[in-house]
Amino acid sequence: MTTAPAPAPVRPAARTHQTLTSGHLPRWAPWGLLAASLVVFGAIFAVIAAASGGEFSVTGWIILSVVAYLVLIYAISRIVEGSRRAFDRFITGIVSSAFAVAMVPLVSVAWTVISYGIARFDGTFFSSSMRGILGEGGGAAHAIWGTVLITGAAAIISIPIGLMTAIYLIEYGQTSRLGKAITFLVDVMTGIPSIVAGLFAYALFALIFGPGVRMGFAGAIALSVLMIPVVVRSSEEMLRLVPNELREASYALGVPKWLTIVKVVLPTSIAGIMTGVMLAIARVIGETAPLLITAGFTDALNMNLFDGRMQTLPVYIYSQYAYKGIPPEAYVDRAWAAALTLILIVMALNLVARLVAKLFAPKTGR
Q: What is the Cβ-side half-sphere exposure of residue 301, based on CA atoms within 13 angstroms?
């Protein structure tokens, strides 16, 4: 009796490395070409700057390096990988370059505000106002509280009005003439200048309390005029994304329409609605012109929205920079510190919006 010979062991295939003759560029090729372009043109611009006695042109160095990289990656990829892959790499390089260009002003603004504002970012700045302060010292506690109170009041006014308007447009008035008219007016309100909202609020309160009135609640009304169309538009889009099958399933169970909206439509779209609301608040919190007209500015802390002038961080920044005293550096430092505080508040609002969207988003997994 004969036995079959044992099969020979299968050896694992040797790992092949991508070369220029394999039809694919190595993964490091784009980064290597970019680094080579930066090094070569950096050396050229350094020699030119040393020979002419001028400054090193960072902008010209980056632009020429990127152009050289795009030319090199397209030419080499066309030779090795073909025209389609070469064109794909070329477009990828252009898109990446556009992204880098878009990030330049953002990084520049953030770096400038942090570098100049960190000098007065201390406890005194957040705990004291400018009442009786001339020159160094003082802080922006009154402006921070004014920003919180006025923006909070504007949100309390705008969110219910904007949300209920969006519900009417999507659930009740899609085909009605009133719904179309409201949609047109919301589009018009979205594009009005902020100074017009401030003039409207000032005229309204001047008719009630007389000319020259200044109060925080008037500023909240002006901000709500700017905030309502943003809330309506964002909520409208989120409500439109709710599938009609969910509504129809609720109606089939005998649930009335208003309860379907409360129990089905709103919980499904609450994450997107909250994100839109937070973005609307972040959009109006930095307004200056309407608050200069309606709330004015003051150096003292005022916690009453209905009595007297109130100051916000944008107005504080303007007043500190426009009306510098002696020494002027103290006023400029306070303005930069207030700008940094305002950016951090807006950043916190965006983080809260992302957290709310993540927590309340509908769960799609089983």
A: 13
The domain in which residue 39 lies consists of: 29-119
Q: Do residue 130 and residue 103 come from a single domain?
A: no
Q: Which of 103, 119, 135 is the last residue of a domain?
A: 119
What is the mean pLDDT of the segment spanning 262-266?
A: 87
Residue 154 sits in the same domain as residue 269: yes
Q: In angstroms, rounded to a whole number, what is the distance separating the alpha carbons of residues 263 and 242? A: 13
The torsion angle over the Cα atoms of residues 134, 138, 144 and 150, rounded to 10 degrees, is: -30
**Domain co-membership, 102 together with 163:** no
Q: How far apart are CA 281 and CA 223, in angstroms?
A: 9
Residue 11 pLDDT class (50, 70, 90 cuts)? low
The whole-angstrom separation of Cα 363 and Cα 354 is: 16
| C-beta of residue 220 within 8 angstroms of C-beta of residue 205 | no
Q: Could you tell me the two tokens for 83?
A: 């025209």
DSSP character at residue 118: G
**Quick one: CA dihedral 181, 186, 191, 193, positive or negative?**
positive
User: Same domain, yes or no, for 194 and 317?
Assistant: yes
Residue 272 and residue 238 in contact, taking contact as beta carbons nearer than 8 Å: yes
**pLDDT, tens digit (0-9, with 9 covering 90-100), for 78-105:** 888 888 988 998 898 899 888 888 888 8
C-alpha span between 46 and 24 (Å, rounded): 35
CATH number assigned to the domain comprising residue 132 = 1.10.3720.10
- At 176-229, the pLDDT tens digits run 888 888 888 888 888 888 889 889 999 998 888 888 888 889 999 999 999 999
Does residue 327 have a cis peptide bond before it, meaning omega lies within 30 degrees of 0? yes
Q: 149 and 202 in one domain?
A: yes
Average pLDDT (296-306) is 85
Number of domains in the chain: 2
DSSP 120: G
Encoding tokens for residue 37? 């372009």
Q: Which residue has the tokens 């700057």?
A: 49
136 in the same domain as 112: no
Burial of 361 (0-12, 13-18, 19+ CB in 10 A): middle
Residue 171, classed as helix, strand or coil, is: helix
Residue 19 lies in a domain: no
